[in-house]
Design a protein that fits this description.
The chain has one domain: 3-Layer(aba) Sandwich (Rossmann fold). Helices cover 59% and strands 12% of the residues. It contains 9 helices and 5 strands; from the N terminus they run E-H-E-H-H-H-E-H-H-E-H-H-E-H. Helix 2 packs antiparallel against helix 4.
Length: 219
């Protein structure tokens, strides 16, 4: 594949979606062909899965989602995105920017839900053919600040469209503490792939993201 695959990771409210959009605009301004998507989502099927997995009303309607079911839904979304969007774009030589990937599943379902790393990576191998990004930008600002931003964002989304994506944000601090620890462990394990960026203004983080991406594109 001639393209280049970049993912953004971090807690809800870490700013990854904003930074992905800024990077997409910057790269397009350089004349590069960029495809952006999010997970879950990015395809018609993925958006349906997203509406089930993230909507805080889901469990009131259908009951508790078992952790393995939750993980399986995430990978179903990922498999569809690979087939429909990611592989065609990479084969066409495009830069693919994706908001979340299997690192999120390891952090949220593996650590947060207690399924463990091995189950997540085994499913990634089986479902995704071990497709990993060439570069992962991991945004790790302060935990409490991230959660406050995420919950404010969901309140605005609820007011605007009548639904929220607050199912994960409703979890307790212990859940998010495990996720934060998971991301730290992933970065330590995957130092060649994962570049961690901490606190900073939007512009400061954007500068750090650009630097990491341009360096990797030139390697």
């Amino acid at each position: 594949m001639a393209g280049f695959f970049i993912t953004f990771e971090g807690l809800d409210g870490s700013g990854k979606t904003t930074q992905l959009r800024r990077l997409a605009t910057f790269l397009a301004g350089q004349g590069r062909d960029v495809v952006s998507l999010r997970q879950p989502g990015g395809t018609a099927l993925g958006d349906r899965i997203r509406s089930v997995v993230l909507d805080s009303r889901t469990e009131a309607a259908v009951g508790r989602i078992a952790p393995m079911t939750e993980m399986a839904l995430m990978f179903a979304d990922r498999a569809q995105a690979i087939a429909e969007v990611i592989l065609p774009a990479l084969e066409a030589g495009k830069i693919v920017l994706c908001d979340r990937w299997t690192d999120s599943t390891e952090a949220y379902q593996g650590f947060g839900r207690g399924l463990g790393t091995d189950k997540v990576l085994e499913m990634h191998h089986a479902v995704c053919g071990d497709l990993w990004p060439a570069l992962t930008i991991l945004l790790l600002p302060d935990l409490q600040a991230s959660l406050k931003r995420a919950r404010r964002r969901n309140d605005r989304h609820l007011a605007a469209v009548g639904m929220d994506e607050n199912r994960f944000e409703a979890e307790n601090d212990g859940f998010y503490g495990r996720i934060h620890a998971a991301y730290t462990a992933i970065q330590e394990r995957e130092k060649q792939r994962v570049v961690a960026i901490g606190d900073g203004t939007l512009d400061e983080v954007e500068t750090a993201v650009r630097s990491a991406v341009l360096q990797r594109l030139q390697d």
